[in-house]
Amino acid sequence: MSCYASLVKPSSKLLLIVLISDYIFCRLSGDEFCIVIKDITASFQSQFADTLISCLRNGMLLSVGELRISISIGIATSEPNTKSFEDLMALADAAMYYAKKRGKNQYKLFDQSIAQDVLFRKQVAEKLRVALENNEFHLNFMPIYHVDSLKIHSAEVLIRCNAKSLQSIGPDIYIPIAEEFGLIKDIDLWVIETTFALISQHSDFIEQAQLSIAINISSLELHNTLFIQDIKKLITDYNIDTQCIQMEITETSLIETDELTITTLQALQNLGIKLALDDFGMGYTAFSQLINYPVDCLKIDKSFIDSLMLYKESEKSVLKAIFSIANAYHLSTTAEGVEEVAQLEYIRNNNCDYVQGYLLSKPMPWDSFVKEVTSPKTHDL
Fold this sequence. Notes:
Blueprint: E1 3-10, E2 18-20, E3 23-29, E4 32-38, H1 42-57, E5 60-62, E6 65-67, E7 71-77, H2 85-102, E8 106-109, H3 112-133, E9 137-146, E10 152-161, H4 171-180, H5 184-201, H6 203-209, E11 212-216, H7 227-237, E12 245-250, H8 259-270, E13 274-280, E14 297-300, H9 302-307, H10 313-328, E15 332-335, H11 341-349, E16 354-355, H12 366-374
Parallel strand pairs: 7-8, 10-11, 11-12, 12-13, 13-14, 14-15, 15-16
Antiparallel strand pairs: 1-4, 1-7, 2-3, 3-4, 5-6, 9-10, 9-16
């Protein structure tokens, strides 16, 4: 007997518990639901998913208006080596992960390619655990410059791994895996504490140079009830002047903002820490919503800067709108990924405040960063 399990994740939270003849449809937690069907054919799986997506795409008419829902569906079928229902659910969950990566209203059947990638992610997660235990990480610093003077204003902290087992795997790969396997909080705290220790050691230099240090934090910290407590302790332990600290969160982490998210951000601001919205433009935040977020800076995503070289007026119009809105809301702006002189000239002419990118500098160790601040290169740009 085959058993079909499908995990469904609507983008809008809707509470449903339904029993339909041969189907079991129940809520698992939050906005995740499960459908279990016995004795079905392979062709029926795709047909069923298509029908479900089509039905929900049409929307639901409620007394207060129309509700539209998009979903991601992961599908798995029991095989002779499927040992338990929990194993089957894990396969469906893995398939749903890939469906979500494709975008809204997508489904994915569990297959061998997913199985191989699941194994890869598990192996990377284990290597990350070992690297944390062995303290096999270090920090690099990406200089951020004033647009007009090209004097260094601050540095973005970037984590790097020394472990040979992770030598060919960059943070763009292992950070999402760390989030998936519950390791990101330990990594975040390691980065923050290591940075605070360095700031404490070089506090006179940082104060004299009027530098700010920017630290990336995972969106998961916005729902970590212990995060603010941990930050307060580290501030006290290392006697940190929080005026030199900025924390960066990605814009996409605010797509589904709730009360706890806002409370956490406000608590960070109350500690004197500045907040930056990283990769801005990728999460499609409505400009009108910015006033609701306690942030101080917009970091414009590299893709917008790259598009300047395509000479598309539509892309330039979006950038101009971002700069205008930021100015109206008294937010500073940083252009990320500037690699061409023409890009620098454009953001200069549109009142951008700060710039970072390979045109001016690559990430570097702390000692090299200090030399860059004290004996800066001449940028004739």
